[in-house]
C-alpha cells in the first residue's frame, strides 16, 4: 500500500518500488505527461505550503 507524505520541505513516497513508479507516472500524466520530475516535485512542494 502506497503512502504519500508531503511536507513543506519534502515529498516522500512509502511503498513498493512498482507502486512508487506507478504513482509518479500518474502524477506526470495529470500534469500533461511531458513534465520533468524536478518541476513536478516543486509543484508538490508549493501545494504543501498552501
Characterise the protein shown here.
The chain is α+β, with helices and mostly antiparallel strands and 50 residues long. It has one domain (3-49). It is built from two helices and two strands; from the N terminus they run ββαα. Strands 1-2 form a two-stranded antiparallel sheet. β1 and β2 form a beta hairpin. The protein is flat and about 25 Å long.
Topology:
Blueprint: E1 3-6, E2 11-14, H1 17-30, H2 37-49
Antiparallel strand pairs: 1-2
In short:
Helices cover 54% and strands 16% of the residues. It has two helices and two strands; from the N terminus they run ββαα. It has helices at 17-30, 37-49; strands at 3-6, 11-14.
Strand order of the largest sheet: 1-2
Sheet bearing the most strands, described?
2 strands, antiparallel
Count the DSSP helices: 2
Tally of individual domains: 1
Termini separation comes to: 26 Å
Uncertain runs are none
Question: How many DSSP-defined strands?
Answer: 2
Give average pLDDT, whole number: 81
Radius of gyration: 11 Å
Please give the share of residues in helix. 40-55%
**Oligomeric composition of the shown chains:** single chain
What are the secondary-structure elements, in order, as H or E?
Answer: EEHH
Q: What would you call the structural class? A: alpha+beta
Strand-residue proportion: 15-25%
Q: Estimate the global geometry from the Cα principal axes.
A: flat
Amino acid at each position: 500500500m502506497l503512502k504519500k507524505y508531503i511536507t513543506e520541505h519534502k515529498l516522500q513516497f512509502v511503498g513498493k518500488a512498482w507502486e512508487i513508479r506507478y504513482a509518479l507516472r500518474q502524477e506526470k500524466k495529470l500534469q500533461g505527461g511531458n513534465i520533468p520530475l524536478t518541476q513536478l516535485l516543486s509543484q508538490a512542494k508549493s501545494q504543501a505550503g498552501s
